[in-house]
Write a sequence for this structure.
């Protein structure tokens, strides 16, 4: 019985990592990251390694743009991932923002220029 009870105990949340990226900054970074992934997906390159290099360059420029280090990003991502509710909130914001950006882009295409 003791083993059953101890096995059902919830895991403790990991401690906040030093330099934790705020939720808002994480959302902003993830939006840009997913846009970069989409751009790379449209590149016509047969060599997968070349695509990986292109994406890593995009990713590095995003780290610089958002003024975060790759290690802070990965540690923060793992921290938020340990709390699925928090990660769901973050990705809900990311998806909503990407949907709005997509709608705005489609609306630009509908504008008729005389």
């Amino acid at each position: 019985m003791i083993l059953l009870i101890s096995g059902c105990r919830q895991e403790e949340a990991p401690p906040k990592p030093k330099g934790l990226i705020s939720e808002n900054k994480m959302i902003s970074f993830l939006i840009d990251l997913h846009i970069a992934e989409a751009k790379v997906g449209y590149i016509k390159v047969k060599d997968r390694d070349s695509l990986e290099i292109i994406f890593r360059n995009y990713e590095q420029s995003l780290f610089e743009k958002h003024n975060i280090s790759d290690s802070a990003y990965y540690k923060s991502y793992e921290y938020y991932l340990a709390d699925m509710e928090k990660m769901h909130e973050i990705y809900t914001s990311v998806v909503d923002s990407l949907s709005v950006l997509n709608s705005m882009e489609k609306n630009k295409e509908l504008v008729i220029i005389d």
Notes: The two ends are 78 Å apart (CA to CA). The chain has five helices and no strands. The CA atoms of residues 61 and 113 lie 34 Å apart. Confidence is low (pLDDT under 50) at residues 1-7.
